[in-house]
Amino acid sequence: EEGRSVNLSEEWGETILSGVRLSGKVDRIDRMADGTLAIVDYKTGNAPSLKRIAAGFSPQLGLLGLIAREGGFKHGTGVATRFEYWTLNKNKDDFGAVSSALSKKDNGTDAAAKLVDDAQKVVSGAIDLWILGNEPFVAKLRPEYTIGADYDQLMRLKEWYGHEGQGDHAG
Length: 171
Description:
Layout: E1 5-17, E2 20-31, E3 37-43, H1 50-54, H2 60-69, E4 80-91, E5 94-100, H3 109-131, H4 152-155, H5 157-160
Parallel strand pairs: 3-4
Antiparallel strand pairs: 1-2, 2-3, 4-5
Helix pairs in contact: 2-3
């Protein structure tokens, strides 16, 4: 894209969130022609859906945007306006695709700021509840968004949810 340049790749950054050090390694940050940033995450599989991102279950790019906004990357400080997944898997007859963590109708500076703010709120809430608070960890907070159902029997979920004795269960 005209005026877009690679700013950094594979760099660790950090910031403080709710009194806890948040660190992350970004795959790539590009500097756009207008001076804003594009946060890029390489995927070998599929990118998370917009629904999953909106529900707060894929906050990675928003948190990397927060680290950039707070000056936590040595070479990538600034405001991110783009959040992209670059998938490297085979898609029909070609390899690779680029998708955005922002919907087409929500693209823009305000939507990008909201993505960062929403990710910050989700993780700050989790820190307040489970890391700094006294709430017990739960096996699956929202089962409809959980990946890895193959291992449910190892976590004895039916017991946790009070479904013991109702069909097959691990015991």
